[in-house]
Amino acid sequence: MSGHGGLLGVVDDTDDTSKWAGSPGPPGRRGRTLAAGEQIIRYARADLRRRWWSVRAVRARGEHRTPPARDGRCTFRARGLVRGLRAWTRSAQRGARRIGFPGSSVPRPSAPPGAARPARTPQPDPPTSPTQRRPRAMRAHEAGALHGNDAAPTWLPYPADVNALIPGLWSSTCRRDAEGALEVGGVSVTRIAEEAGTPTFVVDETDFRERARAFRDAFATAFAPHAGADVYYAGKAFLCGAVARWVQEDGLGLDVCTGGELAIALRAGFPAERIALHGNNKSDSEIRRALEAGVGRIVIDSLPEIEQVAEIAGQLDVTAPVMLRVTTGVEAHTHEFIATAHEDQKFGLSITSGDAFTAVQQVLASDRLALHGLHSHIGSQIFDVGGFEVAARRVLDLVARIRAELGHTIDHLDLGGGFGVMYNTQHTPSTPEQLAGGIAGIIEKECHELGLEVPHVAFEPGRAIAGPSTLTLYGVGTVKDVRLGGPHHRLYVSVDGGMSDNVRTALYDADYSCLLASRVSDEAPEVVRVVGKHCESGDIVVKDEYMPLDVQRGDLVAVPVTGAYCYSLASNYNHVPRPAVIAVKDGQWRTLVRRESEDDLLALDVG
């Protein structure tokens, strides 16, 4: 149970048999499996209670009554969710009773101490040849969620061709060349490894820019009947000088969130008026530099920041264009650490608490601040526009209140980004056209109900542009077949990178795919775990994927969709230099960010 999504992500797979004391369920493998089932039901009940109290809180705030037309939709969604959770819990209980865990109505018969285990139904002998192996049923493992047997997770399909590129996972120019090696941008990965080394981030420039233009055009078209739309590239996903220039040339704005990102953009010649500065804890120097450069907007994140920006603007004798980041209370269907609009988190001004309205009053009262609009961002890796519907409704409710009580019209609205991408076959992202059309329909409908004009809108895709355009190329080192008891084993494929260049698996429990990139193989597929070289048991790059059984030292492995939040989150853990970033296009490659060297690391050590 690798923790893929939902309640399964909180199942405890540790070898704790104390909960079985005095119960008919024995410790051991079956006991642990049944205990995990019991815990799933416990978490389901807790989640049901939590969501039900959320519904009550919505009613207490009166949101289900204003306007009356929304009562049906809000209540129907909430009740539907509760009914679904109840049905899920009942189904889990029925399944648990069938296998007879403690507390069910059909207890499993206990055996006296020392009694022999009952004989199992004879099973066919397992295949003796490694090439005959097939996926087996999963089970809990003593070492925890990221360890287990050699069976594939339920979402991972058995490949018809282990050498094939799965559509949607790879950038638009990826293919196999005549020798069977992976080729991207017309450049073979074997050539990249020879000339640039490994590990290396390989950016498909054509794919990156096509995705950027697709978002620009889709939102411009969807909002053309109204006040229009802007698209800002979220630089936090990945930013360097070349990327800033691509974004500028393709007509997007740029979202930065630190002084360092701002410095990269300005050095690349990016127009300051098309830059938005974010951040929940901006320093005085960052704000000062942004105002001196003439950035298009500073997104204020807290009440104290209003006074901070106004004071620095006064010192510079300028008027600061600002937006207010508001928190809508939306709980996006995403990982806890990347959900950013629920109440209990560090970002934004709460609409529910009244801080957002207070902030609007304070900004309008300042002669050094110009209110440019409102900003909202609900999280990342989101596939359902339903979250944007709730967020837009609550932000537009605030816009209507500002107009009614303060006489001020908000004519700019930024709904952030967070659009999901396909990391593996369990993900089905929407196209830019689908996203733009769906969100435009939502905003049009909500504005009509509130009697508002549709404002000028902005969006901030980052991952959806940078992520799929990039792969990471690794060299294979040690390949280790670890026996786990009985017929179970795990094939570990160690590569020359790891969590220093991709920490998302460890940080977010992210699932990635991979491919034997330097050649094709006729060997049967085998479930492997791709791990890094670092002194850390959680140093996992790809938790589960099928690769040819003959993967060996000297091979190249490519991991797709690593363009977002991989290099940006890279570190020097274990004093490992960060990889190079190269761009490929039309059969040529060039360095965007050079590989760090040991001399770079030693130069920083001045003690």
What's the structural blueprint in terms of helices and strands?
Blueprint: H1 29-61, H2 69-99, E1 175-176, E2 182-184, E3 187-188, H3 189-196, E4 200-204, H4 205-222, E5 229-234, H5 241-249, E6 253-256, H6 259-267, E7 275-277, H7 284-293, E8 297-300, H8 303-316, E9 320-327, E10 349-350, H9 355-365, E11 369-375, H10 386-406, E12 412-414, H11 432-450, E13 456-459, H12 463-466, E14 470-485, E15 488-495, H13 504-508, E16 515-516, E17 525-531, E18 540-548, E19 556-560, E20 580-585, E21 588-593, H14 598-604
Parallel strand pairs: 4-20, 5-6, 5-13, 6-7, 7-8, 8-9, 9-10, 9-11, 11-12, 12-13, 15-17
Antiparallel strand pairs: 1-2, 2-3, 4-14, 14-15, 14-19, 16-19, 17-18, 20-21
Description:
This protein is α/β, with parallel strands linked by helices and 607 residues long. The protein folds into three domains: 6-99; 159-203 and 469-600, Beta Barrel (Lyase, Ornithine Decarboxylase, Chain A, domain 1), CATH 2.40.37.10; 223-465, Alanine racemase (TIM Barrel). The chain is built from 14 helices and 21 strands. Keywords: Amino-acid biosynthesis, Decarboxylase, Lyase, Lysine biosynthesis, Pyridoxal phosphate.
Task: Offer a quick outline of the entry.
The protein has 14 helices and 21 strands.
Percentage of residues in strands: 15-25%
Low-confidence stretches: 1-35, 61-78, 98-149, 334-341
- Look at the structure and name the CATH superfamily of the largest domain: Alanine racemase
- The number of helices is 14
Number of domains: 3
In CATH, the topology of the largest domain is named TIM Barrel
Helix content, binned percent: 25-40%
Mean pLDDT: 82
**Major sheet size, sense and barrel closure:** 9 strands, mixed
Radius of gyration equals 27 Å
What is the terminal separation in angstroms? 46 Å
Q: Looking at the structure, what is the overall shape? A: globular
What structural class results from the helix and strand content? alpha/beta
Report the count of strand segments.
Answer: 21
CATH class of the largest domain: Alpha Beta
The assigned CATH architecture of the largest domain is Alpha-Beta Barrel
